[in-house]
Design a protein that fits this description.
heterodimer; A: mainly beta; 5-stranded antiparallel β-sheet; B: 11 strands; globular
């Protein structure tokens, strides 16, 4: 079966750095996405990785290791508005998105 | 900036009633997705359209759910009869292209369904 694992909840302090991990086992791989979802709202795109390595975009970075079936999202200089759920999703061999359950990130002052 | 439109934003209904949701994707986006998201879980694909054709509806409970995209533009998702377990957020998303050369999915604001 296909499976994506990420922590259910994480807590971090405003101004700090947090890393959200995602491991996956899917039938094929055509890329990994990170989405941000605020409570009651739709997911919004953060990043896409298809090759190994680190992609940096402002305060957010995403890393991929295909051999390990592993990715992480790194958030720097945390702000209160970063409190949200972060969803990891993998595009499988049929180009279908397989979604993780999301990690709820709580930012404390 | 172009957006995916959905209506209604909120719907409260009683079990056994019929409900319908509407989605208008970004202009020019050929691929349209309907997802169901239960609180605390990731989105679950219900149906995928490429233009007016269904590409994948393997997870759609066809005894009560139906979806159409007659002219390959906007789409309607219907539930009849609604059950208590259908309470969820129903998300519509669209992409510029289909199964190859994947682009990011753009989501609408969703319809929050509560079945009493």
């Amino acid at each position: 079966g296909q499976n994506i694992d990420q922590p259910t909840e994480m807590t971090a302090t405003e101004g700090a750095i947090v890393q959200i991990n995602c491991t996956y086992q899917t039938s094929g791989f055509n890329g990994l996405f990170w989405y941000q979802q605020h409570a009651g709202e739709a997911p919004t795109f953060l990043s896409y990785n298809v090759l190994d390595g680190l992609e940096e975009k402002g305060r957010f970075s995403s890393f991929l290791s295909r051999s390990k079936g592993y990715s992480y999202l790194l958030l720097k200089e945390l702000q209160m508005k970063d409190s949200a759920s972060y969803l990891c999703a993998v595009l499988d061999s049929n180009y279908q998105l397989i979604w993780g359950a999301g990690t709820k990130l709580i930012i404390k002052p | 900036e172009a957006e995916v439109a959905q209506s209604p934003r909120y719907k409260i209904t009683e079990k056994s009633q019929a409900v319908a949701f509407w989605c208008d994707p970004i202009s020019g986006h050929a691929t349209l997705y309907w997802y169901r998201q239960i609180l605390g879980q990731g989105p679950e694909l219900l149906v995928q359209f490429q233009d007016e054709s269904v590409v994948d509806d393997s997870q759609l409970p066809k005894d009560r759910f139906s979806a159409e995209r007659l002219k390959g533009v906007d789409s309607t998702l219907k539930i009849q009869p609604a059950e208590l377990g259908d309470s969820a957020m129903y998300l519509c998303a669209s992409t510029h292209r289909g199964s190859e050369n994947y682009n990011e999915q753009f989501f609408g604001p969703g319809t929050r369904l509560t079945v009493l």
